Amino acid sequence: MSIPQERKLLTEIPGPKSREWFARRTAAVPVGVGAIHPIVTARASGSIVEDVDGNRLIDFATGIAVLNVGHTAPEVVAAIQKQAELDTHTCFHVTANEPYIELAERLNSLTPGDHAKKTMFANSGAEAVENAVKIARLATGRTAIVAFDHAFHGRTLLGMTLTAKVMPYKQGMGPFAPEVYRLPFAYPYRCPCGGDTPEACAAACLAYAVDEMHKHIGEENIAAVIMEPIQGEGGFIVPAPGFVKGIADFCAASGIVFIADEIQTGMGRAGRWYAIEDEGVVPDLVTTAKSLGGGMPLSAVTGRAELMDAVHPGGLGGTYGGNPVAAAAALAVLEKIEREDLLSSSRRVGEAVFAALRSLEGTTSIVGDIRGRGAMCAVELVSDRETKEPLGADAMNAITRTCLENGVIVLTAGTYGNVIRLLPPINIDDALLQDGLGVLVSAITAQG
Ligand code: PLZ
Question: Is residue 287 domain-shared with residue 227, that is, in the same domain?
Answer without folding.
Answer: yes
